[in-house]
Amino acid sequence: MSETTRWWWIRHAPVTVNQGRIYGQTDHPCDCDDPAVFQALARLLPPDAVWVTSSLLRTHQTADAVRVHLPAGLPDYERHADLAEQHFGDWQGKTYDEVRDGSQGHWHRFWLSPAAVAPPGGESFVGLMERVVPAIHRLNQLYQGRDIVAVTHGGTIRAALAEALRLEPEAALRLVVDNCSLTRIDHVPGPTGSHAPDETHAWRVEFANLSPKRLVGAGVAGALA
User: Mind listing the pLDDT tens digit for each residue in 124-148?
Assistant: First the structure.
């Protein structure tokens, strides 16, 4: 049996409550009213995967919307608080303009704050990585050689890609992760070869941010061509 662990990362469906406001770890529901998107995702996923979500409702709803298109009898998904979105503290519930005007602190061109800066009462993107990456490695050990479908958040998936690609946190904030997009990352345990004899494992990114519109518009086979 292969020792490679294959991660299938899905970002949750769009949040429509309080549109234009920062929600972070606020537990809003999401819009799962487009079954074609979830059917297209389901057709790409392995049938015998372990399923994990964050602790937030929008990831559970998205997982349910995909799983309805998979064979019945799947084990329930595991909920992991460590895989939740970045906590934006006092910024949660505020509009982007309220944060952008400078009265609420720092602003970032592609994100809400520089990677090492925590919003008031919240956590930084670096802090998010410090809780997400250990959770990923724990699950790698627990489910080595398996497929893991992880329905999580944009920040969480950026953290996973940063770990796989050895990106600095600030660089990871430039990555685009669309709602309902699919990202595939493989974890390979053991020494990586003569070019890096001290490494104990390696990552391989198969694809990232495969968008739902492309999945539906081009068909599954075309989307991966």
Answer: 999 999 999 999 999 999 999 999 9
Q: Where are the alpha helices (H) located in the chain, listed in sequence order?
A: 35-44, 57-67, 96-100, 125-142, 154-165, 169-172, 212-224
C-alpha to C-alpha distance for 146 and 180, rounded to whole angstroms: 22
Q: What is the DSSP letter of 136?
A: H
- Domain boundaries along the sequence of the chain: 5-224
Token pair 């998936």 in the structure block, residue: 157
Model confidence pLDDT, tens digit, residues 52-80: 999 999 999 999 999 999 998 899 999 99
Helix (H, G, I), strand (E, B) or coil at 18: coil
- The CA distance from 179 to 61, in Å, is 13
Do the beta carbons of residue 163 and residue 136 sit within 8 Å? yes
> Phi and psi at residue 79, in whole multiples of 5°?
-105, 125
| Long-range contacts (CB closer than 8 Å, 24 or more residues apart) made by 133-140 | 133/159, 133/160, 133/163, 134/82, 135/80, 135/82, 135/83, 136/7, 136/160, 136/163, 139/50, 139/52, 139/80, 140/5, 140/187, 140/189, 140/201
209 near 183, Cβ under 8 Å?
A: yes
Does pLDDT of 190 surpass 90?
A: no
The pair of three-digit structure tokens given for residue 190, joined into one six-digit string: 């053991």
| Residue 106: predicted pLDDT | 75
- Third-level CATH fold of 5-224: Rossmann fold (3.40.50)
